[in-house]
Specification:
This is 2Fe-2S iron-sulfur cluster-binding protein. It holds the Pfam family Fer2. By secondary structure, this protein is of the alpha+beta class. It has a five-stranded mixed beta sheet. A hairpin with a 2-residue loop joins strand 1 and strand 2. The structure holds FE2/S2 (inorganic) cluster. The site of FE2/S2 (inorganic) cluster has 14 residues, from loops.
């Protein structure tokens, strides 16, 4: 099962998730990475869930139109919207104030 390493505010949180997991959906039911993950709409509209992918980006599908619209040039820097990702492989993400919308 995929291992998720999530960095936030200088802390590192690590958890194992089922394949095809959406981290915003999990946080919504108070499972890891709750309460550390910042998000709001869960629908690709607010970009509050934006994360910089530190590892495992090669396993992710290409950004969808919502990510392109919300992230713009941050996509090229390696950002993705957590609410638009279904995790199937190990991944390492960072979310911090600098990444805030
Ligand atoms: S939670 Fe709003 S864009 Fe992801």
């Amino acid at each position: 099962m995929p291992i998720v390493v999530f960095h936030r505010n200088g802390e590192v949180h690590r958890g194992e998730v089922k394949e095809n997991t959406n981290l915003v959906v999990r946080a919504g039911i108070k499972q890891f990475p709750y309460p550390h993950l910042r998000y709001e709409c869960g629908m690709g509209k607010c970009s509050k869930c934006a994360c910089l992918v530190l590892g495992g980006a090669e396993h992710l599908p290409p950004p969808n139109w919502k990510e392109k619209k919300q992230l713009g040039e941050r996509l090229a820097q390696g950002y993705r919207l957590a609410c638009q990702l279904w995790i199937e492989h190990d991944i390492e993400l960072v979310q911090g104030d600098l990444e805030a919308a």
